């Protein structure tokens, strides 16, 4: 792909973007509605959780929603919009076509809206349920910081850029499945549906960015970044073990051994399968662009369990 071949998906942004054209979704909460989909809660298959009372399992779903919403706020305001700002600056990848530099501001605006609306829903659920969110730093930020600090300063913007590319080319099961689960509160389903619609356009932008950028990178740099990508995907998709541990510890009367429950979740096939399923769109993009043609890079994906 060449810069002249960029196809903007934002020509109807004023009409299609959530923050530009759709109302705030604030459907009233319904009695008995789930606050998150049990199918999407990584703990819900654990025997100790299945044996818990309805009230405890409901509270766990509220916490799962909080973790998802806080993840969204910190992702959008953090690495994704930091990279949007960087991409917009004239000195960074100056060969990017002008329409891409324009579109990146539209993504920046969308993401700020997603963060605000997620934050608002979190407050509304707290007011409705009285379930207090745990204080935590999302795991992906810790992982990203570790990846970042392991590299020389010259590589760090690239690490963050590829983190943004990976996260923006994955539309996770949470966003696509939540709207379809009739057991979930309408306000939660509507938020996920509107967010997923915007992310479909972002996906197209970041896929094209990858297709422009990857072939322009010198081979040793492709090998270096390619070898880091499995950790980037893992950082983004693996369940937030420390946060889930804190959630279970906040219910000491109900869960005697939180560490064992989280370890069981992490070792389960369900968790591994979930990551692989969610990673598919990005893995397809990497395969289509020949990333796995370099044996050391393919080996890194094999070692991480991301390639069959
Ligand atoms: Fe978003
Ligand atoms: Fe996005």
UniProtKB/TrEMBL annotation:
It holds the Pfam family AurF. This is Diiron oxygenase.
């Amino acid at each position: 792909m060449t810069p002249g071949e960029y196809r903007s998906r934002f020509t109807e942004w004023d009409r299609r973007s959530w923050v530009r054209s759709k109302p705030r979704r604030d459907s009233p909460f319904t009695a008995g509605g789930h606050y998150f989909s049990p199918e999407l809660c990584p703990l819900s298959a654990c025997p100790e959780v299945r044996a818990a009372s309805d009230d405890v399992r409901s509270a766990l779903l509220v916490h799962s929603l909080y973790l998802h919403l806080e993840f969204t706020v910190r992702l959008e305001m953090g690495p994704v919009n930091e990279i949007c700002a960087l991409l917009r600056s004239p000195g960074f990848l100056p060969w990017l076509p002008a329409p891409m530099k324009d579109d990146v501001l539209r993504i920046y605006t969308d993401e700020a809206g997603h963060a605000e609306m997620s934050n608002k829903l979190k407050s509304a659920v707290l007011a409705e349920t009285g379930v207090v969110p745990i204080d935590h730093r999302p795991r992906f930020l810790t992982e990203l910081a570790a990846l970042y600090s392991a590299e020389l300063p010259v590589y760090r913007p690239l690490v963050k850029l590829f983190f943004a590319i990976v996260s923006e080319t994955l539309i996770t099961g949470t966003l696509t499945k939540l709207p379809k689960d009739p057991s979930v509160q309408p306000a939660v389903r509507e938020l996920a549906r509107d967010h997923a619609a915007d992310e479909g356009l972002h996906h197209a932008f970041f896929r094209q960015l990858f297709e422009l950028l990857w072939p322009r990178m010198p081979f040793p740099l492709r090998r270096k970044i390619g070898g880091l990508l499995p950790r980037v995907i893992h950082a983004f998709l693996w369940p937030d073990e420390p946060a889930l541990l804190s959630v279970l510890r906040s219910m000491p009367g109900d869960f005697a051994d939180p560490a064992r429950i989280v370890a069981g979740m992490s070792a389960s096939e369900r968790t591994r399968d979930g990551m692989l399923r969610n990673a598919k769109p990005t893995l397809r993009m990497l395969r289509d662009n020949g990333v796995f043609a370099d044996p050391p890079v393919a080996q890194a994906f094999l070692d991480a369990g991301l390639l069959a």
